[in-house]
Amino acid sequence: MKIAFNQTLKQSTLEKDLELCEKYGFDAIELRLDKLKDYLTRHSINELATYFKTHHLKPYSLNSLEFVTFCDDQSYSTIKEELAFLCEVGNKIDCDTIVVVPSFNVGDYTIEEIKKESIRVLNNLADQAEQANMRLAYEFVGHPDCCVNTFHQCTEILEELNRESVGMVLDFFHFHSLGSNIEDLRKIDAKKIFVIHIDDADHFPRGYLEQSRHRLFPGDGAINLDEILLALKEIGYDDTVSVELFREEYSEWDVEEFIKTAKEKTASVVGKHFNLTVC
């Protein structure tokens, strides 16, 4: 199993994250759109591509196209422009996966209407992405305000969509926060999981958890990480997990100490069940 780092620290830059993730033995990094655009004000895409060719650290995903469902025309036009940009970057740095996030507070839509809209949007975006040999990872968000907020709901969308270039993001926090069913995870084809985010959570009631306030380092919280990791092992998943730690108080940490701690804690949890890549 490989371990990746998601760029969640407001106080850091892509240059610093690359340096420290390489130093502490991460295998991969998720490039966040805002950090990437900031980097490109000082460097070229070719410089980034050269970095990945000459270092152990590789790109895991491009993160993310957000709030893609139930958009007005102007918002959707911006999403399509960002998709084109991420496809260009992905092709140059050899990263073929883009995370896609459904919308929040969309109003009174039924599960079936949300499924229909998700399929419509994902098909449209995938038509564009496939032209650049890119694929999309749809991320359900375990919060009551998100229109796609459970593992089961997301898998139903993907099953009906039935498109090889579209899979899912499995985030442990989102899986836990609204009580997704571990038996559903044991039934999925592992090939449909394109990205995994590993994290932990404070011990609060379901539906109350917020990722900017309640995420924790793996092993520090209430999520049954062992159960989820064992289920992944059962279905044959053995690719990459990416530690994603949105939590406001983490913005006060020293960047190096945070990245070092994230690697150590993630490796400790994952290493109980999977062989880890040795740098």
UniProtKB/TrEMBL annotation:
- Report a single Gene Ontology molecular function: isomerase activity
UniProt entry tagged with the keyword Isomerase: yes
Q: What is this protein called?
A: Sugar phosphate isomerase/epimerase
**Native source organism of the sequence:** Ectobacillus funiculus
Q: Where is the Xylose isomerase-like TIM barrel domain?
A: 18-252
What InterPro entries does UniProt report for this protein, alphabetically? IolE/XylAMocC-like, Xyl_isomerase-like_sf, Xyl_isomerase-like_TIM-brl
Query: Taxonomically, what lineage is the organism?
Result: Bacteria, Bacillati, Bacillota, Bacilli, Bacillales
Where is the secretion signal located? none
Q: Which domain of life is it from?
A: Bacteria
Q: Which UniProt keywords apply?
A: Isomerase
Entry's Pfam families? Answer: AP_endonuc_2
